UniProtKB/TrEMBL annotation:
This is FAD/NAD(P)-binding domain-containing protein. Keywords: FAD, Flavoprotein, NADP, Oxidoreductase. The keyword DNA damage does not apply. It comes from Friedmanniomyces simplex. GO terms for molecular function: flavin adenine dinucleotide binding; N,N-dimethylaniline monooxygenase activity; NADP binding.
Length: 546
C-alpha cells in the first residue's frame, strides 16, 4: 500500500494539493481510496457526513436492509476481509452493513485520508494547469489533477411538493436523513408518505410497535417476499466456501446479481407449469428471484407481463383481509418488475392490523400539511410524527447540487440539459480529468459489483496516465454521442423504460424532472465491462490525451 501524504516518484501533480480528490466516502469513495493508496497516489476523500458509508450511513430509517444477498453485496477485493467478515443474516440490516463498512475503514486505516463534515459545493476545471479547484461549504479550497465523483445516484433526497411541507411542527424525518439517535413509535400517531422500496421496508417495521400508522399512498408497488433468515456459523462456512462460484455467477449475470434468468418464455409453458414455478419462487425464492429469474419475456412482452402481474395481484388479495384495501395495494399503472421490485416481510399483513390504515391520495388528495398533521380532501388527520419516504432526485441530483464547471466555465448541469450524456458513464466531454463512479449511463444492478468494476477501471486508468506522463484526459464529443445513443438503443423494448420511476428520470416533485429519459445503462453488465476493458486495452486512445 502506498504511503499517505508522500508525493510519489511519478508525481505529475507537483504544486497541487493532491493528485486525486474523491468526493464522497460511500462504497465508491472508500474503495477508490483503498485502490489509489495501493497504487501510490496522493489522494484525499471529502465527505459531507460524520462517518463513512454513504447510502448506508444516511439511510438509517427503521427496517433499512439489503434487498440483495449480503454475501453478494460485499466487496471482493480483499481475501482477508472475505475470510474475516461473517454475515449474520441473508439480507443484513443497516446497522450490520454500516458495521461492515466501518470494519473496512478500520482494517485499512481509511479514515486518516477521509475528511468528514466537508461538503463540496464547487468544482471548477482550471485550464491553465489542467487541474481541478474544489471548494467546500466552509470556503476551503483544494486543488488536484484528477477529480473522482463518488456521490451515489440515490443520495439527493426530495420532499413532496405538497403545500405546507415545512409547516409541520412535530417530529418529521426524510428516510434518507434519519437521525442517529433512537426514534420510537410506541403510542404515537405516525403518518408516512411514499410506498417505494424504502416506504415498504419502513412501514412493515414501524407497524410492529406504532400507536397508529397512516400510510399515504399515491402509487402502489409490486412488493414480493424477501425470505430473510439468520446465518449461523455452519451456514456461513458453507457460503464462504462457495464465494468463488458465487462471485463468478454475479460476474456472468445480466445485472451482476446472483440470479440468472429463466431461459424459457412464458408462452413455452402451460398454465399449471408457470403457476407452480411462480408459487415456488414466491414461497421459497430469496430476494429478487421472482423478479430476475422470471420467464425471459415478462420484462419485454406486455401480454406475458400482464399474466404474471395478475398472478402477483392475486397473492396480494390473498394476504390482505379487507378487499377494498387489497385492491388499493395492487398497482394499475405498471406491470410487475417494470420498476425496481421492493422486497417485503409481512408488509401486506401490516394492513390487517387495526392500527394501520391506508389512505389512497389519488382518491382523497393531500391538500395541506399543517402544523399538527395532514389535511386531505376528506379529513384532517392529526399526527405526532411525519415520515417522508418520498425518494430522491436520482442519478443527476447529486451532481446538480454542486457547481461543477469544465472547459470555458461550462456547467455540467447545462451540458446535460436535463438528460445526461456521457462516455461509458464515467466521463463527459468538456469535463477533462473528471471521472464518475456510478455516474449516469453506467451499469448499476448489484451496486458493489458495479462499483468494484468502475473504481478499478478509473484507478487503473489514472495509473496508466501517470506512467505515461499524461496530464489531460477528456472524452471526445463523438465518444459521448456514440455511448449515449448506445444507452438509448439498449433500453429499447424493455417495459421498464416505458414506466415513470426514478429509473426513467421522473420525479414528480421536481418541475424539471417530469420528462422520461434514459439515465442508466440497461444493456448487460458483462457487455459493459467488455466495452470498457476494450478502451483500457487500447491505451485509452478513444480519449483526447495530452
Ligand atoms: P421511490 O421509489 O422514488 O419512492 C418514492 C415514493 O414516494 C413513491 O411511492 C412516490 O409515489 C411517493 N411520493 C413522492 N412524492 C410524493 C407526493 N408528493 N405525494 C405522494 N407520494 C409521493 O424512492 P425509494 O422508496 O426511496 O426508493 C428508491 C430506490 O432506492 C429504490 O428503487 C431502490 O433502488 C433503492 N432502495 C434500495 C433498498 C435496498 O437495497 N435495500 C431499499 C430502499 C430503497 P409515486 O410513485 O406516485 O411518485
Amino acid at each position: 500500500m502506498g504511503s499517505v501524504g508522500e508525493p510519489t516518484l511519478n508525481d505529475s501533480a507537483k504544486g497541487l494539493d493532491y493528485e486525486v480528490l474523491v468526493i464522497g466516502a460511500g462504497l465508491s469513495g472508500i474503495f477508490s481510496l483503498y485502490r489509489l493508496r495501493e497504487l501510490g497516489f496522493r489522494a484525499r476523500v471529502l465527505e459531507a457526513g460524520s462517518g463513512a458509508g454513504g447510502t448506508w450511513y444516511w439511510n438509517r430509517y427503521p427496517g433499512a436492509r439489503f434487498d440483495s444477498e449480503s454475501y453478494s453485496y460485499q466487496f471482493t477485493f480483499s481475501q482477508e476481509v472475505l475470510d474475516e467478515w461473517d454475515w449474520t443474516e441473508h439480507f443484513a440490516g443497516q446497522p450490520e452493513i454500516l458495521a461492515y463498512i466501518n470494519f473496512l475503514c478500520d482494517k485499512f486505516d481509511l479514515r486518516s485520508d477521509i475528511q468528514f463534515h466537508t461538503k463540496v459545493t464547487t468544482a471548477h476545471f482550471d485550464q491553465s494547469n489542467n487541474s481541478w479547484r474544489v471548494l467546500d461549504d466552509a470556503g476551503k479550497q483544494y486543488t488536484c489533477r484528477w477529480l473522482v465523483t463518488a456521490i451515489g445516484f440515490l443520495s439527493a433526497p426530495t420532499l413532496p411538493n405538497i403545500p405546507g411541507v415545512h409547516d409541520f411542527k412535530r417530529e418529521a424525518h426524510h428516510t434518507s436523513r434519519w437521525p442517529q439517535h433512537p426514534v420510537t413509535y410506541e403510542g404515537k400517531r405516525v403518518g408516512l408518505i411514499g410506498t417505494g422500496a424504502t416506504g415498504i421496508q419502513c412501514i412493515q417495521e414501524i407497524a410492529k410497535t406504532v400507536g397508529h400508522l397512516t400510510v399515504f399512498q399515491r402509487t402502489p408497488n409490486w412488493a414480493v417476499p424477501l425470505h430473510n433468515s439468520p446465518i449461523d456459523k455452519d451456514e456461513m462456512s458453507a457460503i464462504r466456501a462457495d464465494y468463488p462460484a458465487l462471485f463468478d455467477r454475479c460476474r456472468r449475470s445480466y445485472m451482476n446479481f446472483l440470479h440468472m434468468p429463466e431461459t424459457r418464455a412464458l408462452s413455452e409453458v402451460s398454465q399449471e407449469e408457470r403457476e407452480a414455478f411462480w408459487e415456488n419462487l414466491y414461497d421459497n425464492g430469496r430476494g429478487f428471484r421472482l423478479w430476475l429469474s422470471n420467464y425471459r419475456d415478462v420484462a419485454f412482452d406486455k401480454e406475458a407481463n400482464k399474466i404474471c402481474s395478475d398472478w402477483v395481484a392475486d397473492k396480494i388479495r390473498q394476504r390482505v383481509k379487507d378487499p377494498a384495501t387489497a385492491e388499493r395495494l395492487i398497482p394499475r399503472n405498471h406491470g410487475f418488475g417494470t420498476k425496481r421490485v421492493p422486497m417485503e416481510t409481512n408488509y401486506y399483513e401490516a394492513y390487517n392490523q387495526s392500527n394501520v390504515r391506508l389512505v389512497d391520495v389519488t382518491e382523497t388528495p393531500i391538500e395541506q400539511i399543517t402544523a399538527t398533521g395532514i389535511r386531505t380532501s376528506k379529513e384532517e388527520i392529526e399526527l405526532d410524527m411525519l415520515i417522508y419516504a418520498t425518494g430522491f432526485d436520482a442519478v443527476t441530483g447529486a451532481f446538480d447540487a454542486m457547481d461543477i464547471r469544465g472547459l470555458d466555465g461550462l456547467r455540467l448541469q447545462d451540458r446535460w440539459e436535463g438528460s445526461p450524456r456521457t462516455y461509458v458513464g464515467m466521463t463527459v466531454d468538456g469535463f477533462p480529468n473528471m471521472f464518475m463512479s456510478m455516474g449516469p449511463h453506467q451499469s448499476y444492478g448489484n451496486i458493489p459489483r458495479s462499483i468494484e468494476y468502475a473504481v478499478n477501471w478509473i484507478t487503473d486508468a489514472l495509473a496508466h496516465f501517470r506512467e505515461k506522463d499524461i496530464v489531460y484526459v477528456e472524452a471526445t464529443a463523438e465518444g459521448v454521442e456514440m455511448w449515449t445513443e448506445h444507452v438509448i438503443d439498449a433500453a429499447k423494448g424493455s417495459l421498464a423504460n416505458e414506466v415513470d420511476s426514478w429509473m426513467t428520470g421522473i420525479n414528480r416533485n421536481l418541475p424539471g424532472k417530469q420528462r422520461r429519459i434514459i439515465n442508466r445503462y440497461t444493456g448487460s453488465a458483462p457487455g459493459f465491462r467488455g466495452f470498457c476493458d476494450g478502451i483500457a486495452g487500447g491505451g485509452y486512445s478513444t480519449f483526447k490525451l495530452a
